[in-house]
Amino acid sequence: MSDQPPFIDIRHAQKSFGTLDVLKDISLQVERGQIVAIIGPSGSGKSTLLRAINDLDPLTGGEIWLEDKQINKTLPHRQYEKHINEVRQEIGMVFQHFNLFPHLKVRENVTMAPKMLKGLSEAQANALAEEQLTKVGMIERIDYYPSQLSGGQKQRVAIARALAMKPKVMLFDEATSALDPELVEEVNLVMKTLAEEHMTMIIVTHEMGFAESVCDRVLFMDQGVVVEEGPPEVIFRNPTNERTRNFLRKHLAGQAG
Amino acid sequence: MGLDFSVIPKYLDIVLLGAVWTIAITIGAAVVSFFGGIILAIIALYAPKIISWPFRAFSFLFLGTPLLLQLFLIYFGLVQIGIDVPAFMAGVIGLGLHFAVYNSELFQTSILAVDKGQNEAARTLGLSRLQALRKVIVPQAVRDVIPPIGNNMIALLKDSALVSVIGVSELTLSAQRAIGSTYRPFEFYVLVAIIYYIINLVMEAVLRHVERRIQVSR
């Protein structure tokens, strides 16, 4: 394992808006099948880092590699567009606000990209959608519109939509933060299923309990740097850094109150 | 001289044929203005300046001059530089482009109003910018803008009467021909007004049907 290059390799990632440094020289390696949680206060740069991986928020410095491919390489505009569209097919992303396509039924939300980008026939795409929607427990709602679903159901469909592209890695950007508390669990269960299948995942989350139970590694970020990282039992039970301790104390107090 | 509506039946076929032409021109121009409006909106929003600027100038030209003048220019003017446009086509193009510019303003606003997350979700799946526009952004933008576009289409129907001046035998011109033979302007103008109104009612019914159908996918 250690002889292989990392599956995802973030090298000296930097991002600044004018004089504001959002990411300051962050490096992170993720092995295939690993599940990494990124926690930290809002404004710490954790979402920016996640969104840099598929170039939604391009870095201003540093490199990001997926296997043997550099994601953010320098190319002329047209070639870069082609390159990044190919790379993005291999990286699934799930958003806080689901971003389902409201004008399409659940089925079409899932089939659209595979049909357009992978040349699947209608029948193949339908079979794929049925498979993925069964996996997230949404097969009964296949002919509904997103507006007819609850938040938790929407997010499960969004996960199925991302999985239908057969990505090598899944990014979750606060996937349960916008959900009513009673709907969080159904989404967490789907994510646990993916974890059991050894999907490589990077999860930005505020759910410390979930991060602890599912993740192999936890990163605590604050003010654009990784303050501390390690296995969840160390970060959550026995953090060495003062800032990590403060954050967790405040966070747990907030959850209890 | 009193009113005499009994002259109408004799000329009804001419007037109804005019109504058919009016409907044909309106549908043709509506299609041009709809797709032209989307294309103009996308160019205005996303094309590099060197492309969008000439289109912007073109739009100002269409917004800032009378439609009647534009029809004259297309029908009578273009012949001089060797472009002979048949009257019906000239009407469809003139009306269509004129309203395409109006529609483009509506589409631009509604495209920008589509949630940013929609584009991000589409791009994240691997769609190109153009694919995302075509499959995700524009369908939603169109859906949101159907009512005001519908208003433009009703204005288009009424402005189609202007095409009579370049000799398309649409509703207004047919009425004038009937009046020329009968000297009964009141009777025929009232008849034609009623026919315009009926076409209008049908258009509004169709629009309401479309609006109801897209309601569920919000």
Automatic annotation (TrEMBL), chain B:
Name of the molecule in the record: Amino acid ABC transporter permease
Membrane topology note: Multi-pass membrane protein
The ABC transmembrane type-1 domain, residue ranges: 19-207
GO MF terms held by the record: transmembrane transporter activity
GO terms for biological process, alphabetical: amino acid transport
Subcellular location: Cell inner membrane; Cell membrane
Sequence intervals crossing the membrane: 20-46, 58-79, 85-102, 186-207
Domain of life: Bacteria
Family indicated by similarity: Belongs to the binding-protein-dependent transport system permease family. HisMQ subfamily.
Assigned GO CC terms: ATP-binding cassette (ABC) transporter complex
Keyword field contains RNA-binding: no
Gene3D superfamilies found in the cross-reference section: MetI-like (1.10.3720.10)
Species, as recorded: Parasedimentitalea marina
Keywords: Amino-acid transport, Cell membrane, Membrane, Plasmid, Transmembrane, Transmembrane helix, Transport
